Structure formats: C-alpha cells, structure tokens
Amino acid sequence: MEAKIILNNEEDTKKLAKKFAKSKFKNMIVCLDGDLGSGKTFFSKSFAKEIGINEAVTSPTFTIIKEYEGKTPFYHIDVYRLNGDVEGIGLEEYFDKGGIVFIEWSSMIKNFLPKERIEIDIKRISETKRELTITSYGDKYDRLLGEVL
Ligand SMILES: Nc1ncnc2c1ncn2[C@@H]1O[C@H](COP(=O)(O)OP(=O)(O)OP(=O)(O)O)[C@@H](O)[C@H]1O
Ligand SMILES: [Mg+2]
User: Fold this and answer.
1) Ligand 1 pocket member 59 (CB < 6 A)
2) Rounded to 5 degrees, what angle do the CA atoms 43, 45, 46 make?
3) Distance (Å, whole) CA 60 – CA 58
4) Which of 12, 79, 81, 113 is most buried, judging by how many CB atoms fall within 10 Å of its CB?
C-alpha cells in the first residue's frame, strides 16, 4: 500500500510518531529516506520518546547503529556513511531481536532490507512543511499504515 501525508509542522510530525508508537509491534522495521535535514532523525527521536526511551536519542550518522534499552528496545541505524558497504556489520541480527528498528537512508542498502517493512520517504516542502510518501510491504505493515493514517 502507499499513502501520501502532509505534515505542516514539527507538532504534526510528533503526532504521527505517536501513532506509530501506539501501533508498534516486535521487530517492526521502519525505513526512512529523504534529503539531509528532511526530518528522519526528528521523527526517530519523537518515536523513541513515545515508546518510553528515556535516554537522549541522537543522530547515529557516525556510529551507524545505536541501541537504546527500554521495555521495547530501540535500534536506531543510519547507513549514510557506509556508502552501501553494509556487509560484515551484522545488520541482519537487529531484524529479529525483539526490538524496533529505524533505518535512516535505507534506500542506500535496499538489497539488504527485510522484505516486510514500512518505508517513509520525506520531502521538504518548506522550512516546516513535509510531504511523506509511506509504503508498506506485507500484511502487518499494511495494517500499520492503515492505523497511522
Ligand atoms: N515538520 C517537521 N518535521 C520534522 N522536522 C522538522 C519539521 N519542521 C522543521 N523540522 C526541522 O528539520 C530538521 C530535521 O533534521 P533531522 O536531523 O531530523 O534531518 P535528517 O533527515 O535526519 O537529516 P540527515 O540526513 O542529516 O540525518 C530539524 O532541525 C527539525 O527541527
Ligand atoms: Mg538523521
């Protein structure tokens, strides 16, 4: 399934993150794409807060993978600096660890992504306005998309 959503400001983005948090499930994979500064990390941080991650969530650009403990563990991944060279970093092990996985710049590693996932492509329309194209793959993610719209 595919849907487009307009977010007028940061508040809208936080509300969407809250909906994702409400519908979360184990091993949920959320792929984020969009230009530098479009809001991938902002959305990830908003989501982490909603699922009760107390630790400050920062951009994982330089660390590639950051793990946050919580009732539901949160794995925040940013593959930008890998330049597609994802082999050997053990990415797959995060996909069935029982936590929730967010991957920024996921399109750079398309062949390594699980078949079932949700993808959010963020387009910057203005300083605060964003257009999201959300695509779901698989029943669970189709349901998730239906719930967050
Ligand atoms: N509606 C909005 N949704 C998300 N972020 C917004 C919105 N309006 C303004 N912003 C601002 O846009 C910026 C988004 O930065 P962020 O680090 O999240 O981008 P990014 O996509 O992760 O970039 P990078 O590719 O460098 O990792 C933040 O400064 C945030 O405050
Ligand atoms: Mg980022």
Assistant:
1) yes
2) 65
3) 6
4) 79
The reply to whether 4 falls in a domain is no
Any domain includes 76: yes
Ligand 1 atom nearest to CA at 12:
1
Give the ligand whose atoms come closest to the C-alpha of residue 39. Answer: 1
* In-domain check, residue 3: no
Q: What would the pLDDT profile of 71-128 be if each residue is shown by its tens digit?
A: 999 999 999 999 888 888 899 999 999 999 999 999 999 999 999 999 999 999 999 9
Question: H or E element: which one contains 140?
Answer: helix 139-148
38-67 pLDDT, tens per residue? 999 999 999 999 999 989 999 988 889 999
Best residue for ligand 1 mutational test, from 20, 35, 38 (most atoms within 8 Å of Cβ): 38
Number of folded domains in the chain?
1
